[in-house]
Each structure stands twice: as C-alpha cells, then as structure tokens.
Amino acid sequence: MRVLAIDQGTTNTKAVLVDDQGRVLASASAALTTDYPRPGWAEQSAMSIWTSVRDVIGQIVRSEGVPDAIGIANQRETLVVWDAGTAQPICPALIWQCRRTAESCAALIAAGHDAEVVAATGLGINPLFPASKLAWVFAHVPQARALHEQGMLRAGTVDTWLLWCLTAGASFATDHSNASRMQLFDTRNLQFSAGLGRIFGVPTDCLPTPHASDSEFGETAAGVTDLPAGVPVLAMMGDSHAALYGHGVRAPGQVKATYGTGSSLMTLTPTRVNSAHGLSGTIAWSTAAGPVYALEGNITVSAQAASFMAGLMGVADPAALSALAQTVPDTGGVCFVPALAGLGAPHWDDAARGLLAGMTLSTTRAHVARATFEAIAQQVADVFDAMGRDVGQPPERIRADGGASGNPFLMQLQADMLGCPVQTADIAEIGALGVAAMAFGNLGVDMPLPAPAQTYSPRLSADIRASRRTAWQQAIQRAGFTP
Q1: What is the largest CA-CA distance in the chain?
Q2: Which uninterrupted H or E stretch holds 192?
C-alpha cells in the first residue's frame, strides 16, 4: 500500500510517496514565492499554492502511478478566502507571517478580550492567527460581505483550500489541529464559536466543518489533477503537528522543533494548558479517541534569518554563511536579533525590529555570520525555557526537523544553548511521514517511523551558556521588547 503525502509549506510544496514500511519511494517539489507589499504584510497567491500541489502530484503519478490514499500536511495560520461559485480566491492568501492586523489585535487586547479568547482557544490574541485576518478581509475586500450574504463565501486554512480543490468543491472541511490555530475554534467543545466570531467581528458560518485528523475527508474528483476520481483523503494535519507525529512523540517530555522560515516548538501535555509564559495551548492531533493537546511556541523568523543575512552581506547562500561563521570561535560580542517581522513567542512584540549590536572595530563579517546562527538557536532556547516553566520541569530533549536541522553547526549551537541533547532525523520529510502514518492508521496499517539518526550533546559550560543567554536577553530588550 502507498500513501501520497502532500507537504505544503511556505517556501515550497512537496509530494512524498510513502509505502506501508515508511519508505520514501519518490518525491517532488515546487517552489513558492511570498510577496511583502508593505512593511509587516506577507501574502501568497492561493492559486499558485494550488498549482504547485497539482504540479507535484502530477510528477509523482506520472512516474509512480496512483496511490491508495492521500494525506495533507500544510503551512498553518494562512488564510484563504474564496468564492464557492467560481472557486476563485477573492484576495491573496494572508500568510501566518503577516502582521497587518497588529493594530486591531492590540485594540482587542486593550478592550479586555484576551482572557476570554485564551480561555476558549488557548491562544493569545495576535496577528499570527487567522481570526483577525478574516476580519481584515471583511473590512477591506467588498466582495467578501456580498458573497457571505449570498451564502457563497468560503474561508479556511490551506488544508481546507486544498481539500476543496482536490474534491472540486465536494468537501469543505478541516481537521482539529488546523482549526485550533484559527482562534475562532473552541478547543474544548471542538466547534467554531459564534461568540469568538463576535469578538473579532466575523461570521463563523463561512468556516469549514471540523473533523478528527484521521477522518475520511473526501475523494479526488476527476479532471482536477493527474489523479483519477475516488482516491481518498484520509488524514490532514498542520505541518508542525505532522512533524511531531512523524517523530513518534506520543507522550510529554520531548520537544519537537521545526527549523524553517519560522520555527515551531511543540510538546505534548496531558490536558490543554493555558500558558503563563507566552506560549499557546493547542491541539496536536485528534482521533476517534479524542484530541491530544500540546504547548507550542511560534518564532516568526528563524532559518529565514540566515537567508536574509546572506543576501544582506552578499554571501552566496545560507550554507556559505554557515561556513563563514565557523571561521571564528565566537561572535566577538556581536548579537543579532532577527525581529524582521516583530518577535513571536514567548515575547509577542509586533513593534520589535531587527537589531545588530555589539560591534567594534575588530568585528568581521564572520562574527556577524556566527551571530546569525546563534540568534536562531537563542530564539529556540527562549521558547524551550518557557515550556519548562509552564510544565514545571525542563523538557528532556529536542527532536529537530526542517531544512536547517541538516546543518550540524547549527544543531551543535542549539545543544550548547539548551544544555540538553538535540536529535535529528535522517529523513528530511518528517512531516510528510507523520501525515502518511496517520493516513495508514486510517487504513488499519501501523507504519513504522524513523529513529533519530544523530544526537548533538551540549559542550558549553553552564557559566558560558548563562553568560550568552544573558547577553541575548539584553539584546532582545534593545530590539523593543520590554519584559
């Protein structure tokens, strides 16, 4: 048996064909671009997202034939809004990184709504989540209200959009993991909440039907891709949730860290936790047995910091920047805070701006390069520490995935900054394997998952680690965040 796992991310879309032994039989990829039309705005073409999915499906089917089922893992908190009659988006997809609703979110917090929203969703009011984005669409895209009055408006995250397209509009649904990130979903009763909609000023009757992550979401329609009609979609999860599942984490104590454009750290909790330290309570996944809860911290700019700095310094790419960074033993006192789209968890400061500090006449490009990679590790350490405070003890280890987890230099820096082991997988497509395993479970097959391939143990002394963490926290404050 074979499952086609679609891993739709911010920078690219992948299709991975997986067999019931967890072996990757084939893969295909298509790049995507993000537009930044104004400071703080970030958006993508929803049609380009769909076209990229059609492309990678076609590559796999033409070379490997038709799979038995489909699983979807997707970039989260990205909002797609479309016309059910034409199946056309009515505006660009407002991606998770977009901060255009920062002022409206601040106003809702000032009006005293944050506690009520956190109680229902586990999420503090923030532009990251789609609720305020949907309010922006209703305020700025006239077509939205007209379509809603006609009952033709559809809004959802990327999983919902892809399912709609794959089924030619026959299925309008989402899973509980994606729904839990919309900030309009009550994660205790597992329903979209009209009360939350009133807080944000949006209707909830244009949102998809939520289901368990291992549901039968629909079947492919004829003619929309190279797949024939009738291939079932048997699993959907947000990409970070799928990665946690793909690592085989099934109990509290370990943290999954994804190193991509941004970073997501997630750890399982016995029940839903309302964080007191800047994190989010969320649903990791759900099955017929019910939801599995997690704590999560989202970093807005993570591995993207290396791409940004490589371009700024005229270095070929992040790999070359990493090589340059390793020519010096430390940063020489230089600290880079990549608050290039504000600061995410655990600080949540939309007004923060990127900062390069600590330079002297002896500073070289190599020191700046090293400071960039240390910044990625420091941001992860901030979330890791917050998780420890929320659950009452430090997590045991980190399971790392995402493109930048393949950089041994960064992973060693990360272990040094955390003071605990960092384990990486030998397979880059860990999120795709996770959603494939979920789909196989729906078929009654227990697909094996890969064991960690590499373990990085900390080398820094506790005193040096504490000194570097203190210097980082001071730089964070200078970037605009006030504890």
Answers
A1: 66
A2: strand 191-192
Beta bridge partners of 18: 3, 24
Q: Which two tokens stand for residue 179?
A: 């729904």
The CA-atom distances, in angstroms, between 220 and each of 11, 136, 224, 234 are 25, 32, 8, 11
As given in the structure block, the two tokens for residue 46 are 């929803």
459: which DSSP letter? -
Residue 483 scores a pLDDT above 80: no
DSSP 353: -
Q: Taking 70 as the threshold, does the pLDDT of residue 288 lie above it?
A: yes
Please report, as a single letter, which amino acid is at residue 199: I
Alpha-carbon separation of residue 30 from 27, 156, 262 (angstroms): 11, 22, 19
Tell which phi-psi region holds residue 389, choosing left (phi > 0), alpha (psi between -120 and 50) or beta: alpha
Backbone angles phi and psi of 439, in degrees to 5: -65, -40
Q: Cα angle at 431 between 95 and 92, to 5 degrees?
A: 15
User: Rounded to the nearest 10 degrees, how much is the dihedral formed by the CA atoms of 262, 267, 268, 273?
Assistant: -80
Which two tokens mark 170? 């026959």
Tokens of 169: 């509009």
d(CA 56, CA 30): 7
H or E element that contains 297: strand 290-299
Nearest to 180 by CA among 105, 246, 117: 117
Which pTM does this prediction carry?
Answer: 0.91
- Give the span between the Cα atoms of 469 and 483, in whole angstroms: 15
Q: Which residues contact 440 (CB under 8 A, 6 or more apart)?
A: 1, 3, 20, 69, 446, 447
Q: Is the peptide bond before 346 cis (omega within 30 degrees of 0)?
A: yes
| Residue range 228-258, pLDDT digits in tens | 999 999 999 999 999 999 999 999 989 999 9
Task: Check: CB of residue 295 under 8 Å from CB of residue 257.
Answer: no
SS (H, E, C) 126-191: CCCCHHHHHHHHHHHCHHHHHHHHCCCEEEECHHHHHHHHHCCCCCCEEEHHHHCCCCCEECCCCE
Tell me the three-class secondary structure of 89-103, residue by residue: ECCCEECCCCCCCHH
Q: Which residue has the tokens 């920062």?
A: 102
Residue 310's SS3 state is: helix
- pLDDT at res. 15: 97
- Name residues whose C-beta falls within 8 Å of residue 52's C-beta, 6 or more positions apart in sequence: 8, 12, 13, 30, 31, 32
E strands present in 9-140? 12-19, 24-31, 43-44, 69-74, 80-83, 88-89, 93-94
